[in-house]
Structures are given as structure tokens and as C-alpha cells.
Amino acid sequence: MRIGGRRAEPVRGHRPPGALVTAAVCLSATVLGSGCVETPHYTPYATYYVSPEGDDRNDGRSPSRAWRTLSHADDRAYTPGDRLLLKGGALFKGPLELGQGEAGRADRPVVVGSYGDGRATIEAHGSLGISVHNTGGIEIRDLRIVGRGSAYASEGGIDLYSDLRDDRKLRHVVVSGVDVSGFRVGIQMGAGGRAGFRDVRITDSAVHDIKDMGLLTYGPEFGPAAPWSYSHENVLVSRVVAHHIPGDSKSHHRHTGDGIIFGSVRGGRIQHSSAHDNGWRASSKAQEGPVGIWAYDSTGVLIERNTAYRNHSGNKVDGGGFGLDSNVSDSVVQYNLAFGNDGPGFHAFTSKDNSAHDNNVFRFNVSSKNARTKHDNGELDIHGVRLRRLQAYNNTLVTTDATGPPPTTAVRLVNRHSEGIVLRNNILVTESGPVITANPGYAPDQVTLQGNNYFSTRGDWSLEWGNRTYRSLGDWRSATGQEMVNAKRVGLAEAPCFAGGELPEITRVDAARLMVPACGRVADQGLDVRSLFGVDPGSRDYFGTPLDRPLIGAIRPAPRE
Questions:
Q1: How far apart are CA 62 and CA 80, in angstroms?
Q2: What is the DSSP-derived secondary structure letter of residue 515?
Q3: Which of 219, 225, 366 is nearest to 296 (CA)?
Q4: Which of 58, 64, 139, 344 could share a disulfide with 320, CB 3.0–4.6 Å?
Q5: DSSP per-residue codes, 260-322
Q6: pLDDT tens digit string along 329-360?
Q7: CA dihedral 305, 311, 316, 318 (to 10 degrees)
Q8: pLDDT tens by residue, 523-546
Q9: Rounded to two decimals, what is the model's pTM?
């Protein structure tokens, strides 16, 4: 159980003179707004080149007249439409800083990238790699950014930060085709006060061999009643991979080893991305642990078609695949795959006694062989002080027993004043553990389970509800009133007949087809949630197959022969 508020801590890095000493590191694409000042002695739409074969006495306006050093290029002020291009395959000593009074506009961004063959490398010895402060209209493309020396302990690779004193959102920042390694945080976008960024695109990039966190967005402390609580708007992360981020065994006061984190975002999407093999050095004394892909202090977030696997935690909590954490609302986690994580495949959690964790959905996700070391977490963990209106439907959650007791459960429900929790049309399979553990027990007006399929492969079916253990679906239904709709008994306790066997274990990102039901026992048995409850169930299954009838689980059964 986590203690206190779960927030991501940015690195403290170098800032331009007079700015706050708070750094942010960002990874693929972001869109910032204006805030630049025209500098008349520079012609708009100019392209400047930097090459190891160049000379800083040149004007930099062509490859044959290139500058030699990035420090010389850094002394220039850039205006809307300018481009700064570094020779592909070459190495340049950083950092590069773009501050208020230069850079671009949303319609005429300043572009920093490579020319020629391959990507140029910016190498930062004990410093950040690229800093963007209080300005927008920036595109960072096709670069390698490598940290050396103390950069791994204290700096960020790409740092986007705004501490403007108004609530203006800087527009248009794009980060694309970058590879970031060797820093404490790979890519970070942050804000102080009411400022922030909007129209941000981070795409086709990798953050790896980072100490603490791969990709992070953050803002000031969340206030449920404050419209500026969300610093960033319209943020897209797509085709980004965060891997081999070990965490810090000496950071006992915070979580480290995370993959991709959305904090303080209104309207964001994480898609077609992956977080894997992270968190193995996270502190064993910390009260919070890392998670692969997750959000906190955010609203309107969509996390879809991603993978999270082999993520770890050095302590007793977390180490999961996907999460919606404190103060997340109106968000959806769908069509994702989680396997082989230390903690739960998917979790919903809040430590805040407020109404801000509200109206979230987990649907059409596949989860296999998670809770490897956090045995009591299960594949789906719903746990917190005050969760409101949370739906989990059409998920396939299959768990095998981890090494050591207790046996792993498919779903864990921990009630602390939560309400409106609904689980429908899910496939829940365990090896020997209870299919659900609810501790303490939920009252019927707090949680509703309808139309789910519960199965234990060893045949010793059990479900723990409060202080009681039930040995059959019928007994549990009669005692609690669960799995009933309009006085009709619903729900199943049937073997799903998976294509991969009775208890398939996913160990590769291309192995979700092992979870396709291969016989008719659960086919056509799902509840019609649209007509019964007014819930839009979605039009496609996990693999994108159109759905023409109600479904149990995330994947449409194989056609009958």
C-alpha cells in the first residue's frame, strides 16, 4: 500500500539565468506556443549548419560554410522559421539551450535536427542535453542525446519547462526520432505556477539506460477546484519505447525506475508505445515503486494499444504495467497488453480523500502472468481511498501462481470509501488462487459484478469476499447478490478453452493470440451493456476485429468449425 500522494519528482537541473531551478525532460514531440521576440538582425527561415569540419568564423548558412561547435550555435538567437542542423553521424558537445525571446511560433517553428546521413549526437558531460525554457514553436528531430558523467545522476536529456507568471499555454513542441540515454530523466516537460504547454507531439523515439524515469510530464500540486491544475493540454506520445531504466537504490523517499508518466495533463494520449525491463534497482525502502505506463493529476487521458512487460520494483508495492493513479478522471485504458511485471498488470489507485479519481474505464486489455513478486496484487488491482465510477469490462485477466505464497488472484478489490465500481464481461482465470479477493468486502451499492467468467484451472474454485471464502459461483451469488441482472442469474464459471491451453502464459509481445477462446463455452454469453446499462462497449475487440454481438473478455472467440 502506498503512503502519501504519488507524484513524479522532476530532476533539478540548470536553468537560464533568472529562471527557476527546476528542470524538465521531454521525449518525443511537444507543441508549444509563442512567446518569442523577433530579432531584426536575423532573417526568418534561415538554415544554419554545424559540422566538425566547419569553422565558427563562418556564417553557418550552408554545409560548406558550417559552424564547428554547438556552443557557438548556442550563442545565436533563433527566430520563427529558422533551422539549426547538425551533421549526421557526427558528435557535438552540449548543451543546447533555447530560451524566452528566441525560438519559433506554432505556424513557423524553429527546428533542431540533423542533415546528411544518420543522426547527429549531442553529448552532454555533466549537464542537460537540450533545454527549452519559456518558449514554444520548437521541433527537435532525428538526434541522439547522450549523457556522460554526472548527467546520469542529476540531469535531463531533453528539458521543456515554463514558469511564465500567467496561465498561457505555450504551443507547438514536436520531439520526433530522438534517442536519449545516460541521464537521470530522459525527456521531461514541466511547469511552475499556472503556465504550461499545449499541442505536444512526442513520437518515434526511445529513452533507455536512464537512471530514474524515461518520459515525464508534471506540473504544480494538484487542486481539484483550480482550472489551472492541468499544466499541459493536447499531448500525444506515440511509438515511444522506454526501457532499461533501473531506478535508484538510494532514493528512499520516492519512486524511481518508471517508463512513461503523464502528470498534469488535460487531454492526452499514449499509444503504440512500450515500457519494459525497468525498475529493478528501485529502492527497497521507498514507500512507492515504479510503474511502466501511468498517469496522475490528469483528465481526459487515453492509454491505448501499448505494451508493458518485465517491469520491476525493489519494494513491496507497485512494479506494475499500467496505472491510473491519484486525481485521474474521465480517462480510458484500452487495448493494452501487460505481462511478466512484478506488480499488477493494471491498477487504479488514489491516496487522496477527494472526488478527483472519477469516471475512468479499463476495457479490452489483456493481462498475463503479472504480480510476479507482489503476489497479492493480482492482474487488476483496484485500491484507494475514494475511487468513484470506475468501470472494467471486456478484459482478459489470466494469472499463474508466482513463487511463494499467497497464490495470485485475478482481481483485488480494496475498499476505502469507494463507490460505483463496476466489473462486467471480463474473463478472470487463476491457477489456484481465488478469482477475486475483496478485502474488506464491498457492499452491493459500492461494487457491481455482472456477466463475468470466473475459472480456476486446478478446479478448486474460490472467491474471497470480506472475511468469507466461497467455493462456488452459486454460493457467492446467493450470499452477496452479485452476478444478477433484473432478478436473472448471470456470469459463468467455465473454462475459456484458450488457444494457448488451459493456462497460457504470454512471454512475448506477439503472443496475445494465445488468449483467443477456442471453443464455444463463453461465446455469445456477454451481457449487452449498451441496451441494459447504456454503456458504449466499443466496436472492436483487442485485435481490431469488428464486434457484432456482446463479448466476454477482450478477444472474440475463434470461429466455430
A1: 19
A2: G
A3: 219
A4: 344
A5: EEEESEEEEEEES-EEES--TT--SS-SS--EEEEEES-EEEEEES-EEES---SSSS--EEE
A6: 999 999 999 999 998 999 999 988 888 999 99
A7: -20
A8: 788 999 999 999 999 999 999 999
A9: 0.91
